[in-house]
Amino acid sequence: MKTKIDLTIVPPTFNEKDNVGPLLSAIGRVMKNKKINYEVLFVDDSTDETPEVIKKEIKARKDMNIGMIHRPKKRRTGLATAFIEGFEKARGEYVCCIDSDLQHPPEVIPRLYKKAIDDEAEIVFGSRYMKGGSAEGLGTFKTFYGIYRRLVSLGVKYFSQILFIPTRQTSDPMGGLFIFKKTILKGAKLSPVGFKISVEVLMRTKHNKVSEIPYKFLKRENDDSKATLNQGLEFFKHMWNIFTTVPEAGRFLKFCIVGGSGVFVNLGVLYGLVEFYDVGKNMAWATAVIISIFTNYFLNSLFTYSDKKSATRNESMRRIVIYYLISFFTMFFNFLVYRSMINFGFYYIIGAFAGIVAAMVMNFVLVTKLVWKLRIR
Ligand code: GDD
Ligand code: MN
User: Fold this and answer.
1) In the beta sheet, which residues pair with residue 70?
2) Among residues 171, 200, 223, 268, which is most buried (max CB within 10 A)?
3) Are 341 and 317 in contact (CB under 8 A)?
């Protein structure tokens, strides 16, 4: 009978010939006596002799369960696909992603596993940004390059956390040192774009509890980081990919974009009716409102709530009616905010702006809950 594998450790390698040996020694050391049945699965895209080094290590370390996927040139399509291939071949109940250049200290691996078991968490992140953690491997605030890398790292973190609510489940969604239960990949379609596989796992899998533990991100001993400007562009491509393909990602922003389109529809219809059809200004205004609410509803169902299509004609009708009621109500609410701001002595343009923002948020909350029946997250 085959014994069950608890954990598959997946270090991706790109020209890491000097780091493979030390990494395996460290893993062997920290996993000793931990009673975790683990395997190590390299996913290698190297152009140097790293694969030969790995093969030698596999032969030399008979006591460890080590495997390698060495991808032929045509399959070397970046870090994301490397991880995806690793996940597919991983036999462990849990999978741990870790850099192979020792910037992620291997002693974190058994701690991540223990935390997952103790908390019954399906994902556990190593975090540089919680108490006890450190990002010193990015460089210190004393050098220009250090300041630059730190700012980029924090900028990217907050960028994703503002836009993508599931990435708020950890203080370090971009760190790349984490463990997850393999079953959460069932039914999830990971995208082959980008370097931040952790964000993919957070955004595209259904999972319960997410936990985190602190760790110190170390300086790179051999060679340099492979982070380039190109990676920065890839990152935004990746975020865009998530935004456009994960319905829940940036839902409020999608709602605001649709709302913005409604303004143009509204003004366009108003102008057209008054100028070309000689319709009275009140009548034209009311028509413009009614039409723009409809286009908003239509675009929202297509774009903002694409995961919640109406099942029947009846359901569509009911949704449209509720949508109109909510829109009229929030218009009234908008006016109330506007008037009270003026009464409080604010400049009327500020009042109008506050009214728009308040109404937009209220509209979003009501529409999400009552029309598309989703939890607000
Ligand atoms: N198979 C494969 N294919 N591995 C790759 C590739 C690739 O195309 N590109 C990079 N790697 C491997 C490297 O060999 C290394 O083990 C790991 O992926 C991370 O690459 P580094 O070049 O060391 O990245 P870094 O130090 O800039 O980035 C680290 O810090 C980020 C946070 O600031 C990584 O840990 C990221 O995961 C982390 O998000
Ligand atoms: Mn590195």
Assistant:
1) 44
2) 200
3) no
Phi then psi dihedrals of residue 321, to 5 deg: -60, -50
Query: How far, in Å, is the centroid of ligand 2 from the Cα of 10?
Result: 15
Residue 149 Cα: closest atom of ligand 1: 33
Q: Which residues contact 353 (CB under 8 A, 6 or more apart)?
A: none
Atom number of ligand 1 nearest to Cα 97? 37
Reading the chain (377 residues) residue by residue, the pLDDT tens digits are 568 999 999 999 999 999 999 999 999 999 999 999 999 999 999 999 999 999 999 999 999 999 999 999 999 999 999 999 999 999 999 999 999 999 999 999 999 999 999 999 999 999 999 999 999 888 887 888 888 889 999 999 999 999 999 999 999 999 899 999 999 999 999 988 888 999 999 999 999 999 999 999 998 765 566 566 777 888 999 999 999 999 999 999 999 999 999 999 999 999 999 999 999 999 999 999 999 999 999 999 999 999 998 889 999 999 999 999 999 999 999 999 999 999 999 999 999 999 999 999 999 999 999 999 887 76
The answer for residues whose C-beta is within 8 angstroms of residue 341's C-beta and 6 or more apart is: 348, 350, 351, 354, 355
Ligand 2 centre to CA of 339 (Å) is 56
pTM above 0.70, yes or no: yes
DSSP 316-348: HHHHHHHHHHHHHHHHHHHHHHHHHHHHTT--H
The single residue listed with the structure tokens 């607000």 is: 376
Cα–Cα distance between 253 and 310 in angstroms, integer? 22
User: Which ligand has its closest atom nearest to the C-alpha of 98?
Assistant: 1
